[in-house]
Design a protein that fits this description.
The complex is a heterodimer of chains A (217) and B (476). Chain A has 217 residues and is mainly alpha-helical. Helix content of chain A is 75%, strand content 0%. In chain A, helix 8 packs across helix 9. Chain B is an alpha/beta fold and 476 residues long. Chain B is globular. In chain B, helix 6 (176-193) links the parallel strand 7 (164-168) and strand 8. Chain B is 33% helix and 25% strand. Chain B has a 6-stranded mixed sheet with strand order 6-7-8-3-9-10, with helices on both faces. Classes of the chains: A mainly alpha (217), B alpha/beta (476). Chains A and B meet through helix 7, helix 8 and helix 9 of A and helix 2, strand 6, helix 3, helix 9 and helix 10 of B.
């Protein structure tokens, strides 16, 4: 499915889940997402991660609603499954979509200015460098006798300083590689939104909304 | 075809007190291979970025005069036309690419200049073949070595097919073989494809037979002059001489106390092994100089020794595996003077920086009088309230070294500590380092390209070559 439409579908469904209280629809969403992920060959490690990490907030919500809330056990289950619905819906996007494809479609089909499409992509590709920079900052601080934790402002000050420097260099590099703001570009890989994409998007949206209308448990 | 003429060109950075470039008048001739040399930090990058049309857009400062391509001012040429005229390659291999893979970056470039998609595959294949990295086409850029990244940067520029190719210290962090190969490729671009090459480098190796014109930026006058043949030859000769000057240093003796040991050590950050060691030692209370070609892995070795990068095998400090020492404790024992001074800074002003070192130092070996005297000798005493990031590169380096001296760790690793220092400051610093070694038995391990002016500090010399470290008696 087109990555841009997939993103919108996931965001809309996640919003709807937030404002409805149907346990069954939540379970259906989780089930369908899981099926989709399995079809896309999610690794066992990713699967375990998706089950394990949300368990703490989900259980927390469940227990506090069950013991201290006044909406009953049904609502506690809704909250519990809601967390998993978010996570699995999100995963159908993040695990199966390539960030490059997303920015290509946002630029070509959704008319996002190429400056943003490629700026975001470039920033995304900087991630490994940012991680190693944070490590360097922490080590440098240790050598000055200071322990920087993730809540220490100095860490952010230094990281932001480095990012500003990089963004400047990146802008120069993109310019030097021929990138000109607001100028026409050709496209090696053309990404179109097909009729099938629209069908999946519209169909998915309608079916889930019909479920919300008719299924209240 | 385009002559690049610089006329009455001056430039001053906003924070600076003086002009970086002072009334420059010169012409880079069309279809020539021009070399621009001068010490690092002298303003070569600034001029090249103006020629490439990146400045004034990306800089804050005041430029006067003009830079013209065959009579047309570069600032008046629309950006899209400028791409056909000039393209630039940078010094830092890590910050030239917007995309994640080699192929994606090449397509990005071609899309920008509106190449017909049907022709892209051929252009990409040819450009990658020309620079010798056809087999890397589908690789992630993050997994490439520095040399491979610079080859990709050149391939991007070849794909753009601009008339003038500007390169700013393109070989500063890559290995010797890549350097020789890429210089040959550039020559080929000039002779077979009619390109104009403008390249800056402070290292003159391998250029003598290749270049047509030699420009020198004199740091004292901030003036660029085109040298005649006699001057040019004199420069190359002087450069060769400084290279072959040999000095004899001792080799470690069996009685030297060992401090850092490598066992079954293998360093391979990009998949290819950079260094394999078994039973190698650094010695306590000595200054060891590590030399080796650019890009061979010297800084990566320091990264391993400070646990910034992963390695296989064991590094021990005072007979303890460093992986088992607590991070803070280890960092206080084995500290690194980073190549980039700003990496060392945690605070805003010079005074705050010094106060931090004073607060956290492990010994009080340096008295307040000592420190004040050093501040005076380094001419930092009247800059106590200045923001560290606004200091000049030389001042940053001096402050950085001073604050690490105050910390006074038992082992100090120094990565290119002399970069950007003038000779007087260099001698002062060398004096402090000798002092720290003699008074506090500090172990110092230094990576440095240049060693004129520091020979009297060096006890041992280690050569980094062929994936190995070896102690050598000759320093050259």
């Amino acid at each position: 499915m087109n990555p841009g439409l997939k993103l919108f579908l996931v965001v809309i469904l996640a919003l709807e889940v937030s404002f409805t209280q149907s346990l069954i629809v939540n379970l259906v969403l989780i089930g369908v997402s899981l099926l989709y992920l399995l079809l896309h060959r999610m690794s066992p490690k990713q699967f375990l991660g998706l089950i394990f990490w949300p368990l703490f907030p989900a259980l927390g919500l469940f227990v506090s609603q069950w013991l201290y809330g006044d909406a009953g056990i049904h609502f506690a289950f809704v909250l519990f499954t809601r967390i998993y619905a978010y996570v699995f819906l999100g995963a159908t996007f993040t695990i199966t979509t390539n960030i490059t494809d997303l920015s290509l479609t946002l630029e070509q089909d959704f008319k996002l200015p190429s400056k943003f499409a490629y700026g975001v992509l470039a920033a995304f590709n900087l991630m490994p460098k940012i991680i190693s920079e944070v490590k360097t900052i922490k080590t440098a601080a240790l050598m000055r006798g200071e322990v920087l934790h993730f809540w220490t402002p100095t860490l952010y000050f230094k990281a932001i300083l480095a990012s500003i420097q990089w963004s400047q260099n990146l802008a120069e590099a993109m310019t030097s590689h021929g990138f000109v703001e607001n100028q026409e570009r050709t496209h090696y890989q053309v990404i179109r939104i097909t009729a099938m994409d629209w069908l999946l998007f519209g169909g998915g949206l309608i079916i889930v909304n019909l479920m919300f209308v008719f299924i209240h448990y | 075809m385009a002559d690049v003429s610089v006329t009455n060109f001056s430039f001053k950075y906003n924070q600076a007190n003086t002009n970086t470039l002072e009334d420059e008048n010169l012409t880079f001739q069309t279809n020539h291979f021009s070399l621009l040399s001068g010490p690092s930090g002298s303003g070569k990058t600034t001029l090249l970025k103006f020629i490439a049309g990146l400045y004034p857009k990306f800089v804050e400062g005041n430029a006067t005069g003009s830079i013209q391509f065959d009579g047309k001012d570069i600032t008046s040429i629309p950006a899209s036309d400028r791409n056909q005229l000039v393209a630039m390659m940078f010094q830092n291999p890590d910050q030239q690419f917007a995309m994640n893979t080699v192929k994606a970056e090449m397509t990005f470039v071609l899309e920008n200049i509106q190449t017909d998609p049907a022709k892209m595959d051929d252009i990409i294949d040819n450009a990658l073949k020309f620079v010798g990295i056809s087999d890397l086409k589908n690789r992630e850029i993050n997994t490439l070595s520095g040399g491979q990244k610079q080859r990709l940067a050149l391939a991007s520029i070849i794909a753009m097919d601009s008339e003038v190719i500007v390169l700013d210290e393109p070989f500063a962090s890559i290995d010797y073989d890549t350097r020789v190969d890429l210089i040959a490729r550039l020559k080929q671009l000039q002779t077979e494809h009619g390109k104009t090459i403008i390249l800056s480098d402070h290292d003159l190796s391998n250029y003598k037979e290749v270049i047509d014109d030699f420009f020198y930026l004199d740091p004292a006058t901030r003036h660029i002059a085109k040298l005649n043949n006699t001057q040019k030859n004199a420069f190359f000769q002087r450069f060769e001489q400084t290279k072959i000057k040999e000095t004899v240093v001792a080799e470690p003796s069996a009685s030297d106390p060992k401090i850092i040991n490598f066992a079954d050590f293998n360093l391979k950050p990009h998949g290819d092994s950079l260094l394999q060691l078994n039973g190698f030692n650094f010695y306590r209370g000595k200054t060891t100089l590590v030399t080796g070609e650019n890009g061979i892995g010297k800084s990566t070795l320091f990264d391993a020794m400070t646990r910034l990068t992963k390695y296989q095998g064991t590094i021990s400090y005072a007979k303890k595996n460093i992986a088992k020492i607590k991070p803070l404790k280890y960092a206080q024992n084995v500290s690194l003077l980073f190549q980039d001074a700003e990496s060392q800074f945690l605070n805003i002003t010079v005074k705050e920086e010094l106060d931090l070192s004073l607060k956290n130092r492990f010994t009080t070996n340096y008295s307040e009088d000592n420190i004040n005297q050093m501040l005076g000798e380094l001419h930092l005493d009247n800059r106590m309230d200045q923001v560290v990031y606004s200091l000049s590169e030389g001042q940053k380096k001096k402050l950085q070294i001073l604050e690490m001296l105050i910390m006074n760790p038992p082992v100090l690793l120094l990565d290119e500590p002399l970069k950007g220092l003038d000779y007087d400051s260099l001698r002062t610093i060398v004096g402090y380092l000798k002092d720290a070694k003699i008074r506090f038995n500090q172990t110092q391990i230094i990576i440095s390209h240049q060693f004129s002016g520091i020979i009297d500090l060096i006890d041992y010399h280690v050569d980094f070559a062929a994936h190995n470290l070896t102690y050598q008696e000759v320093l050259k």
